[in-house]
Amino acid sequence: MAARFLWASRVASHLRISGAQRGFSSVVLKDLKYAESHEWVKINGNKATFGITDHAQDHLGDVVYVELPDLGLSVSQDETFGAVESVKATSDINPISGTVVEVNEVLTESPGLVNTSPHEEGWIIKVELSDACEAQKLMDSDKYSKFCQEDYAKH
Amino acid sequence: MSVNRVKNLGLPLMNLVKLRGTPILQQLLLEERLLRSSSDNWCIVNDGTNLLTLSWVCLGTVIVDENTLFVSLICNRNDVPDVQPYPRSVMAWSGSLYSEVFNGIADFQLRENDYVFGDRKFGGNAQSITRNRWIHHTSFLWDYSVSNMAYLKLPSRVPQYRLERDHTDFVCKMKDYIERSVFIEKTIKAVGTQFMLKELSLDEIDDSCREHVETTRLLTLDELKETTTRSESIAQAV
Questions:
Q1: Number of separate domains in chain B
Q2: Shortest CB distance from B126 goes to which of A61, A88, A94?
Q3: pTM of the predicted model, to two decimals?
Q4: Among A8, A12, A18, B181, which is most buried by a count of CB atoms within 10 Å?
Q5: How far is CA B170 from each of CA A27, B81, B102, B164, rounded to the nearest angstrom?
Q6: pLDDT confidence of A108, banded at 50, 70, 90?
Q7: Which residues form a coiled coil (chain B) (predicted)?
Q8: ipTM > 0.90?
Q9: Residue of A nearest to B80 (CA)
């Protein structure tokens, strides 16, 4: 745990993110957007890649299954499209709205990537955005870090 | 603030449903419906079920028999603001609730993810978490038959405190520690310290739920094999 905290601090420092304060030590990447439900989104033109944050995977525990949607499915921010299952819980995923254009099939055989590489190899779906305004409402890394710290402090 | 909050007492409302001998699949379907289609808090107590069955709870399989007791708590996140919607936080909360139930009765603990007396497991639980709500479902091992336990293989994923014990050394029977009616009464009382309880019958439930698409179902044998291979948790005794 101490080593993880130190690593997270170094990464946070490299990425110029003030994420390691008062016990909150999850990695928050600067070039991503974040939802209050602890999902990250990487916007690239009218497409977005989506996954769960380091904070979320840490709290969920060992992920053993990821329920992936079908290609072509219309997903909505207000509706659940699938779930991440850990040893003791299933947790719904609420993506950004659009059409599913790619899913990370590797997660079927290696769901643990969501734990070990939540922002990279553990990405879950790619979506063609249907509402660009939704992305504007997401938090940037600084706001998300602060959100997590406040949430951590409350509990 | 939740619209279910009773202003005078400051306690959020929770509907209490007491079932008796309801089949576990029916209970799980009800819980799925209440989790996804209701905005109320719910406490469901199922005093036994009427079939020997393999049921699927989260990623573990549990052998349930007619004596197994089930208690599920479905909560709006805003009505339990001190609880983060993650497994450890939910179980820490539920563990403290059940500590009240077993206070002075047994050496009750939440140990890793299990409810134990001493170092013997008597309750297995699972959670399902949505954006604004979560369910904590517990199966309590009231009694068991050694022959039924023979259906279970030793899981490859085990809690550390198990220490390679086989099922008969790892689990214990709740009936050896508390009277059944006393457990139910004390559980309801403990829940009642945090919620204003209102008892509903099954018939009265429909009004508070909107339509939803069921996803809970019995797995086929092939699906069960595939899933247990995937999860590396072949079976766990409750």
A1: 1
A2: A88
A3: 0.81
A4: A12
A5: 38, 35, 19, 9
A6: very high
A7: none
A8: no
A9: A155
